[in-house]
């Protein structure tokens, strides 16, 4: 501690250099993870201030620009969200100022793609606990129903968990990837270009969901299970704040309500009463209204979550 100024100033400087110009993406990501460990572990102390005095923003954005896959941008994005939130009500946080001024569209698109990918991964964890997609009638389904599934030659059905097992698994969700909501909220709150790309960016593959479609799908699952823990509730609030920011922008609201926004989004059907199952593409505004109605229906309790409502 006697040498903390020297040691931590040099430590953060080395991390900054490696994140920016490490010999490969793998090494650069390890430096990000080291910075995340320090930031998270020392969040209630003054040690994080060394990471705010040394501006890591250009290095983090350079790494995001250089990565090959959306999943590789997850750690830099989350670290940025943590740093942008550090003591932000007590002093002018330099990372928040950086978010407002950032206009590199190519890098922002990579962040949006990463966020969409993370939302899909997070939603899949709910589906793994309980697959809620209604199946149409098939010969293999019928044979399975009467105990002759082996004759159909199809894949064995996913084992159904009992109620207590499912309850415990749902209570542990969302997973660690939910931290991406913090960064997304900060970016959406500060940067209009990020908001525009989040709503309008098409999927790379026409058979995949767009980033915004993935976000809405995960929102549906988060909202239906928000009552399970205070942690789930807090992440749901954050999710809804992001949606509120987007909808209060007149240009984006017009886009979300317009016919050009039509897309297909998988909505949660894990708890009754179910909304009608809709196949095909719909206007985004209709999907959002369904998500909100479902959220209201499934969070009715004697001790009502007033903040959520």
TrEMBL record:
This protein's record includes keyword Ribonucleoprotein: no
Keyword Lipoprotein appears in the UniProt entry: no
Highest taxon above the source species: Eukaryota
Residue intervals of the Armadillo-like helical domain: 282-309
Stored InterPro entries: ARMD3-like, ARMH3_C
Keyword field: Membrane, Transmembrane, Transmembrane helix
Chief site of localization: membrane
Localization of this protein: Membrane
PANTHER family (UniProt xref): ARMADILLO-LIKE HELICAL DOMAIN-CONTAINING PROTEIN 3
Descriptive protein name: Armadillo-like helical domain-containing protein
Lineage: Eukaryota, Fungi, Dikarya, Ascomycota, Pezizomycotina
